[in-house]
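Minutes, methods subgroup
Present: GH (chair), OT, SY

1. OT presented the first of two proteins processed in the latest run. Sequence and structure tokens recorded below as shown on screen.
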Amino acid sequence: MAPEAAFSTTIAAFDKFAQKGFDAKEIELVFKGFGKARTGFMMALESQQGEPIRSKVVRLTDATPLQIGRITAPRPKRR
């Protein structure tokens, strides 16, 4: 997903929340994974359309799993 696609999808979700009367007092965002979609979402949240949601965010957490010291594949035998 390109950042532009994630941006437009996020803006559409913000609009749908506003139309449905979504009214939360506090919002906690949990990010999982890296990529262009994450960047697009953050750009949408920081934009003017994201202001109603951004003002209610109380916590931003990164739950991306990281592999440290992973096992590598064995090397092929030389003949």
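2. SY then presented the second protein from the same run.
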Amino acid sequence: MPTGTLGFPRFRSRFPWWGRDLQTLRNYILNIEPPLADYPAERLEFPLGDGDRLVGSLHRPDPQAGSAEPGRPLVILIHGLTGSEDSSYVRTSARHLLAAGYPVLRLNLRGAGPSSALCRSRYHAGRSEDLRQLIGQLDGRLAGRGLLLVGYSLGGNLLLKYLGEAGRRAMVLGAVSISAPIDLDAARHAIMRRRNRPYHRYLLNGLKRESELLELPEEQRRILPAIETIYDYDDRILSPLMGFTGAPDYYRRAMALPLLPEIRVPTLIIHARNDPWIPFASYRGVDWAGNPRLVPLFAGGGGHVGFHGWGGPLPWHDRCMALFFARCAS
């Protein structure tokens, strides 16, 4: 579907962020940390069935601000691999949505960010039951006006998997997925390509740091320093802990791709054709016309959760997200 349809602006890269890699790395290069001090956070904890607890930061829009409109749905932001509530892309979206009048919950997945101190286990791309349990705990104070969901990268796959599993039972007004690895094995092959070695090393080091904070069994703790690829991590560390027989089993059972036809919530799916981490081929084979609830929005550029384009400093995906949510909320 062309990006100019349905009223969404077209994406055009802006100077000097040309190409997939500068788009992907821009926030890292500039050390961007959008401020949220204008919207004081309330720490919330969500107990899970096995005793672990998720942590999130709830922000409410300023009722005195002219842009704030009362009664808007709660938006939950779900970070990606090795991310947290403080990932730059999460903070950027939160600030924009708060200015538009939405209450926002920046969620830390199991074992990530502030959740790590309250968890013995960790998140993975298919752990959609955690999101289901969290949503089940939201009361009228938090989600009385409805609920909107946003997932970035791994968080996008987790979000889409949850929506596909829930089908018509998903109590959600709308959702947005950004740069999601809907085919996990294809994404694993892409990130391990020679040209992606710096990305691969960065992510693997982040996974190891996260794992060191958990109560790993002795065998996994012993072999962790010797793990040299994400595939080996998924195969030898994550899979035994999560009940998978190995990395192939994990990728097959956790990916969202086969569940896309079951989604019954209006869902905007944003992806860049030049994403260096997630191959666009994973999206090309989807029968988008077969599920009218899905709105694919594909840009020629943008990299991975980048989309730094013309029209101002706000990323293109955040502008499209706000337009889509305005329709869902109305």
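Chair's summary of item 2: The chain has one domain: 5-183+255-329.
Next meeting: continue with the remaining queue.
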